[in-house]
Amino acid sequence: MHNISYSRRKRTRKQTTTKSVNKTIDVNQYIHTGEQSPETATVYQNKYTFTEFPLHQKLQTLIAQKGYSRPSEIQDKSIIPILQGEDIIGIAGTGTGKTAAFLIPLIQQLLENKRHNHALIIAPTRELATQINEEFASLSKGLGLYSTVLIGGTSVFQTLNTLKRTNHVIIGTPGRLQDMNAQGAIDYSQFKVLVLDEFDRMLDMGFSREVQKINNQMTSKEQSLLFSATLDPAQEHLIREITNKPIVVKSATSTHRSSSIDQQVVYTEGKDKFQVLKSILNQPIDAKTILFCETKRHANQLLKKLINDSYAADAIHGNKSQNRRDQTLSSFKTGKINILIATDVIARGIDISDVELVINYQTPRNYADYVHRIGRTGRAGKTGRAITLID
Ligand code: AMP
Questions:
Q1: Which atom of ligand 1 is nearest the CA belonging to 92?
Q2: Contact in structure between 223 and 86 (CB atoms under 8 Å)
């Protein structure tokens, strides 16, 4: 019954990723009701425990305080090579613990040698950059290490001031980093380590020139750490330029055992899609839900309809100011609203631990986006549900 494949309607908007837009998606991929999905079914056998890593005692304590009892697969495979100064290509998506996989060894390096402007971390989105900074703050609490986040939508004046302070780590999105560089506020030649997080996403968003320029100016760079959910042949040229004899490490498992996501498809053919959505939202009532739409316009339209029907909802997408995005995320985290409408801007990287339901009101462009979207639920050992509505 579900054995249908379909092609995406032609998009009228700028087609930057035609490759994936025209891809045929098999609906079967969206259905794993009650089963374990193949990529998460495996249980990874650790080689190390955290205490076996040559890490400073204070750092060990902070890791334990975060509640990390054993290294995730990507951490198990990357921490030692990074400490040994190797370049890494980590094939790992969100939810694998990749952030701590590079932050833990970076913090250890800084404890051995507290260099200013030691590491430059580039992330594709503001949210992800902010999240990396939060993870850095918690993993380096009380160690006298400082970081600054350079993202759009924040005060340039304030950012310029923070760049004058001591900073051991700078985390930024390519656009704001380049703005700061153009103003002479950041000198890439001082940094020893370059981290590129969600590299595939960065290229999808058209940042390859910026990344290349930044890399070229890092004349004292000693190490490059690159993390990407996928390894596309189109990335190869740039990866070769950035890295030096990299070790490729792959992670197939998540820190959250996301095998507990119940995935369903609901066909809305001939029915009012919005009515179908409401019937899903009404059972169970008030479940913390992320609703994915394809465009900002769709997200706004859906928000209007839900608010008209008295649902506690808000939308987050690229047209909202950083302040508004932060406010909306915080209202969702604290439970002021229980429905968050989102475009793919937040599909990757955002870590909200207790999302019970993900609804794809519009289908994702490809399977990778699907996996990222549904990965917002079933986190931190909890179970989750994902429902994809198909016209
Ligand atoms: P990331 O893939 O870096 O976005 O991490 C996903 C989530 O896993 C975050 O909530 C982290 O706090 C959490 N996490 C990272 N490392 C571990 C670990 N070793 N054990 C348990 N949770 C972890």
A1: 2
A2: yes
